[in-house]
Specification:
DUF4037, two-stranded antiparallel sheet
Length: 354
């Protein structure tokens, strides 16, 4: 049994198994078929190792709401007619999800299809969830519902993008000098830990600058390597990550900051920022002054509520506030996601205390 990427395996499963069943037994239905949602194969990162669990030929089938009553019959027919193995891989029809686009949206983002998505809502959507909806592949889309869904969540609205960029620079500004101070005080371990956080923040900024959703930690570095900025930044970031002394970390990160400032200037979002580091007060440290850059970006936000939030609480989105995987991948099943989203939105109300 030779390995086949999941995108291709599921395309064949749709064409050779699902579509004939639908044509023979449910030709009167309009539907969509796709490989989206969770799974490394959706992002194209699957390898032979991925096949050891939850990696099977599968699709999401989307029916119109009035037709969802046919779901069990479709599933039963697929179960009867699908082979036990498909191109050498075991078939488990239970992994084929039959749902509607509104239910899918509700599960992923805890919003209804008809509900107006406010700007603050975007700050509650984990980037991994946004990737799972917008990546993968659509094999059939009779009414264009999936195309509309993927376009709707294709990328952050402009003001949200600015807020996230500003929050990313803010994080750097808050810790860039702390790494140096810890090292200067003889705490190399503490300095190295802060350096790792800064490396991650720089990588996150690169995703934002290139307008790409960042995946969760397992694929974060893999996806970063595919960014245009990776060629210039991989070496200094790796040096900062592995350096033994704080001065080595400082030199490596300052090299990365220089490239980051060039990227920022290329976006023409604000007046040009310096492409060289400068002294931190009278101390023997060189920094980028990330908080000043954050302020410049935040001043470009037009939306009044988001602009006020940036002045009182420049904390970013759920991804910038926590790296807890369970929290960041919490879905909207059974109303849990809706209450979680509302609790998060409360954090982003500039007039509410934390």
């Amino acid at each position: 049994m030779s390995f086949m990427k999941g995108i291709e395996l599921c395309r064949r499963f749709h064409l050779e198994i699902v579509e004939p069943v639908m044509a023979q037994h449910a030709a009167f239905l309009s539907y969509s078929s796709a490989l989206i949602g969770p799974g490394s194969e959706v992002l194209g990162y699957d390898t032979e190792m991925s096949t050891d669990h939850d990696w099977v030929p599968r699709v999401y089938l989307f029916l119109d709401q009035p037709d969802i009553g046919h779901a069990e019959q479709i599933r039963s027919t697929l179960q009867e007619q699908a082979p036990e193995r498909f191109y050498g891989f075991p078939v488990d029809i239970r992994k084929c999800v039959i749902t509607t686009v509104p239910r899918f949206i509700e599960r992923y983002f805890a919003v209804s299809k008809a509900e107006r998505i406010e700007l603050l809502d975007w700050l509650t959507f984990p980037s991994q969830s946004l990737l799972e909806v917008t990546q993968g592949e659509v094999y059939r889309d009779d009414r264009g519902q999936l195309s509309a869904l993927r376009e709707r969540f294709g990328y952050y609205p402009h003001d949200i993008w600015l807020y996230l960029l500003a929050s990313g620079w803010q994080r750097i500004g808050q810790e860039e000098h702390l790494m140096l101070r810890a090292g200067y005080a003889g705490d190399e371990l503490g300095s190295a830990i802060i350096a790792s956080r800064l490396v991650r923040d720089i990588m996150n900024l690169c995703f934002l600058m290139e307008r790409r959703y960042a995946p969760y930690p397992k694929w974060f570095g893999t996806a970063f390597k595919r960014l245009q900025s990776a060629e210039a930044l991989l070496s200094p970031l790796w040096t900062a990550q592995t350096a033994v002394t704080w001065r080595e970390r400082e030199r490596a990160l300052n090299h990365a900051y220089k490239h980051l400032s060039t990227m920022h200037n290329g976006l023409a979002l604000t007046e040009k920022i310096p492409d060289e580091v400068s002294a931190f007060y009278d101390r023997p440290f060189n920094v980028m002054n990330g908080e000043k850059i954050a302020s410049l970006i935040a001043n470009r936000i037009v939306d009044a509520e988001l602009r006020q939030l940036s002045r009182t609480r420049l904390i970013g989105s759920i991804d910038q506030m926590t790296d807890n995987t369970d929290f960041r991948t919490m879905k909207g099943a059974d109303g849990e996601g809706r209450s979680t989203r509302q609790a998060l939105k409360n954090l982003f109300q500039p007039d509410r205390p934390i």
